[in-house]
Design brief:
Layout: E1 8-12, E2 17-22, E3 27-33, E4 39-44, E5 52-56, E6 60-64, E7 73-76, E8 82-87, E9 93-98, E10 102-112, E11 117-128, E12 134-139, E13 145-150, E14 155-159
Antiparallel strand pairs: 1-2, 2-3, 4-5, 5-6, 6-7, 8-9, 9-10, 10-11, 12-13, 13-14
Length: 162
């Protein structure tokens, strides 16, 4: 569900598409595509331009803005598949995890240049507590804990002090 418009739905898939649907119009309203990309997870920013953030099987994080046909931000994270992501309630921190078992936290910082603003994500923490691939992540509402779950049924509760 869209964070701003409750009648909008967004999806991503392993075929490299990011799709947006309008339930009022009963049709797809936006289709964004990138060759040779397979998307695993999606979340949406609550601040900024409400970009859709997706993770890829080749270890990238991309931000899609509805006004553009190409990603507005790409983070080269790892060569490992990224399986899940979670955005903190303030929208300031993004947690990602994947097949390598690591939980990584990025701070989404806006850098103001002379003529424009640009998002510059900064890796601020790496947690190594799982022995197998991480399949899900979730922030506590107060952004002080992050919970990660691996496919061997292990769970880690990470204290986070921002």
């Amino acid at each position: 569900m869209d964070v701003k418009f409750p009648y909008m739905l967004h999806s991503c898939a392993e075929d490299g598409q990011v799709l947006s649907y309008d339930l009022r119009k009963e049709r797809r309203v936006k289709s964004q595509f990138q060759k040779r990309k397979r998307y695993n997870a999606m979340t949406q920013r609550k601040d900024s331009e409400n970009e859709l953030l997706v993770t890829t099987t080749c270890g990238k994080i991309q931000a899609w803005d509805s006004d553009y046909d190409t990603p507005v931000m790409t983070i080269e994270d790892t060569q490992s598949s990224l399986n899940c992501m979670s955005l903190s309630s303030s929208g300031r921190f993004l947690a990602v995890a994947g097949d390598d078992g690591l939980v990584k936290i990025y701070e989404l910082v806006v850098v103001k240049a002379a003529s424009s603003e640009k998002q510059q994500p900064v890796l601020i923490a790496i947690g190594d507590g799982h022995f197998t691939r991480v399949v899900d992540l979730s922030w506590a509402p107060d952004e002080r804990q992050l919970i990660s779950v691996a496919d061997n049924c292990s769970m880690c509760v990470w204290n986070f002090f921002g």
